[in-house]
Write a structure and sequence with these properties.
rod-shaped; single chain; alpha+beta; 479 residues; four-stranded antiparallel beta sheet; 15 helices; SH3 type barrels
Amino acid sequence: MSVQLLVGVLVLVLALAARTSTRNTYVKRKLVLSVALAAAYLVAHLLALWAGTPPGIARSLATIEPVLLVLAASNLIVLLAVNPFREDRLPAQLPAILQDAITVALFVTVVVLFFNDRLQLTAAAGAVVLGLALQDTLGNAIAGLALQADQPYKVGDWIRVGEHEGRVTQISWRSTVLRTRDSTLVGLPNSSIADGAIVNFSEPAPPTRVFVDVGVAYTAPPNHVKAVIAEALAQVPLAMPSPAPDALLVDFGTSAVTYRARCFVQDMERAALAQDQMRTAIWYTFQRHGLEIPYPIQVEYSHGDMPALTFPEQAGLPALMGNTALLGGLTPEARAALAGSARPRLYGSGEVIVRQGELGRTSFLVGRGLVRVSLAPDDQEVARLGVGEVFGEMSWLTGDPRSATVTATTDTLVFELDDTTLRALADGTPGVLDTLADAVSRRRAELETLSADHATRRGAVIEAPASLVARMKRFLRLR
């Protein structure tokens, strides 16, 4: 092996080894020029020595090849001599443009001292200009080839590179184009992608887990909080049912216990919307269960000073009950007792309040908003109920499973009536159950008459009030 060939191999090996082992991204990018020039030198040298190369071309290659080797070696020497090898930074006194000037000066010095051929001098000048102009382009091209070989992502994948995140719309020899969530296009040079970490949310499978953190007061039992979060996540439209959502206790903070609600989404592009739905569902569900999300503590406050969520509709609840077909026949005292025990429950738009077939022991009075009543299996809407209307009364009175699914169509406030108050009221006030049974029977008869498919249901038996009272007493364990 000739000395010239040995030197060329040594420069190429050193450049490749340095590029592989250095942590300095600037050095890594600039060394692409040395690698390309050293490889070009070796090709030119071998072609010049090959017997099959025409003599004229062989002489031109023999004249040009030293220029390539000197420029490759000059770039390599300057980069390794002045830059930190294990740190990703430039020297404070030697910015990139000054390093390029040193490289050119070193190269020109060697050319002036050792090159006498006019063709070599011309090639040297051209090599300097071309090498400096194309070093970033060469870096991007080689990085693009490497990315295509490894294929860490493909067109259509949702990826994150540094601070940029989006869907890959184009991969070229120079750059990769991402479309962000804001529908803007970001072109990233391939060299910057190859030198950094690539997070591919679409591989090996599209479902991706997203999470939100929420603080809860220290007085709430963790298992109860996790169950409430699971209930909230079941209301999130974008959350995949499998793998199932879950909740983790992740921190005991200064003012709250921090929980992490997690679920999988099919499309990472909609992750921000899924997180919005998760936070919204958690807020409403926490309000219904009385779980407090503490305020950030900057100064000390007593608990009584904290503002509480109030419902102005609760003050007019007895009068609202008096206007309902079910409860209007009760005495004012009975309605006041029911109103005093009614629990306000706030549901967000789209949340399911009761689900068909589930067991229940409560009924609901709409205090604000609108709900949709539907039947399985095709979720056919059968009614819409507004302020002052009651649903779930058969579960409340007899313990029957829910006969329909009721969903909030807007932010809806309902007042929940439980069987405990009903039992105490029936035990202490004669005639309450008879009044309720008569109201239920009348209501069912009216619904039967107004039913859209009355013809198909003609002949259905409406339960007599006496029979209904007997069932109510058995359910409430009354004599």
